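Bug #77: duplicate submission created two jobs. Keeping one. Sequence:
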Amino acid sequence: MYRLLNLFWKFNLPRWSILLIDTFICAFALTLAFLLRFNFDDIPEVDRRNLPLGYLVVLSVRLLSFFISKTYKGVVRYTSSRDAVRIFTVVLMGSVVVFLLNVIAYKFILDVYFIPNSVIIIDALCTLFIMISSRLAVKAIFFESKNPDREKISVLIYGAGEAGIITKRTLDRDAAIKYKVVGFIDDDEKKSGRSLEGIFIYAPSKMEELIREKQVEIVVLSIQKIAPSKKNAITDLCLSYNVKVLNVPPVSKWINGELSFNQIKGINIEELLERDPIVLSTELLEEEIKGKVILITGAAGSIGSELARQCVRYKPKCIYLLDQAESPLHEMELEFADKYKEQKYEVVVADVRNGERMRNVFSTFKPQIVFHAAAYKHVPLMEHNPSESILTNVLGTRIAADLSVEFGVHKFVFVSTDKAVNPTNVMGASKRIAEIYIQSLGHHTNTRFITTRFGNVLGSNGSVIPRFKRQIESGGPVTITHPEITRYFMTIPEACQLVLEAATMGKGGEIFVFDMGKSVKIVELARKMIKLSGLEEGKDIQIVYTGLRPGEKLYEELLADTENTIATRHTQILAGKVRVYDFEEVKHIIDQLIISFKTQNNEYIVQQMKELVPEFKSNNSVFEKLDT
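Kept job's structure:
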C-alpha cells in the first residue's frame, strides 16, 4: 500500500486539474448549502427557477477569484497555515461579491434574489471546510505514506508555552516526515492533564515513564529561560536512557522572527556547566567606565576580547586593544568595525615585555583604567620554558604596572588564575609573583591595583572542552591525564562580568576570588560529552589516561591555606586577605629573577621563584628535586 502511494506521489497533478477540482468542490458545497437550507426537502419554485443562474454566478465568481489569487498553484501536499488563510480570504471575498450581485439583481434587474442570502452564508462555510480539510487530508496522507507512524522518531517537548507550541508546529511543518510529537512536559501543574493541539501535557514527574513507554528518542527543550540546574537534571535523565537532547534557541536568534527546524540544535556541554545569571551593578559599572580611556592588554585572547566587548556596553571614551598576536588582533579589529561602529577604538600591536614600546603606548594614549590580561597560561609549556614565563608573566606585568603608576592610571585590574594558589608549576608561580609585585607596589602609589582570580574558562583557547570536541569528532580516543582530576569551570562572559564588577568595588590591594561553583570531575565531563555526541564509551569511542602532565595538580584551589576571605557586596565575589610584602624586598628579588633570564638556566630561575614564593612546590616536574 505504502509503495503504491509513494509511487503516486512521484507525479504532480497539473495546476489546471487542481483548479478544476476546486471548482467541483465549490459546486458540491453550493448543492449541499441548498439541501441544508431547505432541510433536504423540496426547493421552493422561485428558488428552483433561479438555480441555473445562481450556480452560474457563484461558480463564475469562485473560478475568477481562484484564478486571480492563484490558490490552485500551491503544492497541496505541503499546505501550510498561510495557504489556509489565503483560501479563507478568497472564499470570503467571493461570497461578499456574490452577496453584492444578489442585492443588485434584486434592486435593479430581477426584482428577486437569484439565490437566498442564507444559502450564500452556508455555501461559504461549506466551501471553506471542504477546501481546507481536503488539502490537510492530502497532506496527512502524504506524510504518513512517506514515513508511517511506526517508523517515526518519538519526540517530547519540554515546555508547553508559546515557544513549545511554535516548536511543535515547526516539527509538523519542517520535519513531520521524520518526527512525531508524543507529548508536552510542563512545570505548571495547572496545565497537567490538558491537551495542546491534540497533544497531551504531562507533569515533569511523568517524564521518565513517558520516555520508557513511548520509546522517546528526542527531548526538545523549548523553555526560553530555564535554570541551569533544571537543564542538567533533564539532560542527565535523558542521557541515562540514551535519549538525544535538543535545544530551541532564544527568540532573538530566530530567522525573521520565525523558528526553523535547522535552528533546533543539540545541547552542548557549555550550557550544562553554566550557572544562574550574574546580577551586575549596571549603574556602578557605567559610572566606572563611561567616558574613560580603557587599555586592555592581551585583547586578542579569550578573556581580553570578551572584556573589550563588555566594556563597550558602558560607553567608554576610547578602548585600546593591545596584543602581540597579529592575526587574532586583526580579527578583533574586523569584529569591532562590524559590530561597534559607534565606539571609538584602536588596535595596538605591542609586546608587554618591551618597555620602550609600552612607554610609548602609555604616554600617547594616557589610559585611565588598565585591564592586564596578557599572559602565558599553558602549564606544560611554561614548565619546559620557565624563562619565557618570567619575561611575560612577571616582567610584562611589572612594566605595565610601573607605567600605570608613572602615567597616573586610576585603576589597574590584573587577571590572575587559581593556579597561583599554592602553585605546583612554573606558570602558577609566575602569576603569583606578579600578584605579589602589584600588591606591594600599590601600597606606595595612588593607582589602585586589583587582582582577580578564577579557574578554567569554558571555550578559551587551548582549554579541555575544545580539545575533547576535536577528539570526539575524529573518533577518539579522548585523553585524560588522571581519573581523579577535577577542575573549576566558568564561562568567558561570566568571568569577564565578575572582573568588571570587581573593578568597580576594588579600593586597591585586594585579591578578588570568584565563586566558581562546584569542581567538575574531568572524566565525568568527557563521558557526558561523549553521550551528548550520540556515542557510547567503550563501544564507539575510548577514554585513555595519559598521566599527569608536568606541573599539573589533581585539584585546583582558589585561596592558599594561610589566606581567608571576607564577603563583598556581590554574592559571587569574595575578597581574599593575603600576606603583605615589603615592596623594596620584592622589587630586589624580581630584579634578580628577571636578570637571571640571561643565564637560560631553568633550575636557577625556578629556584629563585621558590625563594619568593615558598609555597611553590613542584608536582610531577623535573623541578621537584629543588624542594628536597
